[in-house]
Amino acid sequence: MESFGKELKALIPDGFAKRQAAVLERLANHPEVHRLKAEFPDRTDDLTEPKRYRDLSQHISYCDKCSECPGLLDCQNEQKGHTSVAEPSPTKGDELVFRLRKCPLLAAYEREQGIGQRIKSHYIPAHILNATFEDIEPDPQRISAIVAAINFCDEFVPGETTKGLYFYGQMGVGKSRIVGAIAQELAKRDVSVLMVYVPDFLLEVKDAIGSKTETVESKLDALRTVPVLILDDIGAESLTTWTRDEVLGPILQRRMERLTTIYTSNLTMSELKQHLANVKDSKPSEQKQNDKKAARIFERIEPFVKILPVGGRNRRRG
């Protein structure tokens, strides 16, 4: 047994013990170890013992590389986008364990990727979908509408907030960008949003009837059930009796008092009510009936929104 011990000792390179001791000493003097001992004084007695070398060494390596972070794309850690954190062991009360966690850069990247998945749109330009409140100029004619939009986002509670917003004003004053910023902000909070340009969407639904009924029904169901629906430029569409009574009406009926709907329009509320009554395929003899149907749909909109005028210059013309 003694000869075996001598043989084993002979296999160990000269200076190995000294190099190991130097490594452990360097680890013991590392600022991160001092920080851990200060934060967890009762759990770090064995931290620099040889048996903890591997775990502590990996933790220090991650900390050092994170302290000189070159960005997510050029991350030098073995598991990119992760950092090492120390926490009390759930099973050994007197010991620290080291775990890998997503770093803030990776978490932010995944959050940004998820935003695109949580904002669905039909016929909405990219510059509207990508709008943020930081991008919107808070000029006096629309500052109250912008503040109301920000407050709406701050106070929004999924499953509880049902009252939406109705932004109205002349063309080009920035109504769509405001609701685009709302969509971005809610998506950052993991709220699913669907934004639809009403004139083109209703035209698509009308053209698809009879040929792609299943597809149309799935799109309509998305409008009925999404947590936040944004109907952009309502009132600019050419309404027919069918699109008003069989498409718009049922969507709003399903959503009122349950889910949040936000609108933009060039029309005031009274003008919108008149628009809903003046469908292009109706006869003069049907006007009274149309007035009643319009009033019924109007009652699914007006009581469930805060009405916000948006003023200012036409920004499309510079």
UniProtKB/TrEMBL annotation:
Residues 160-277 form the IstB-like ATP-binding domain. Coiled coil: none annotated. It holds the Pfam family IstB_IS21. It comes from the Bacteria. This is Primosomal protein DnaI. The gene is dnaI.
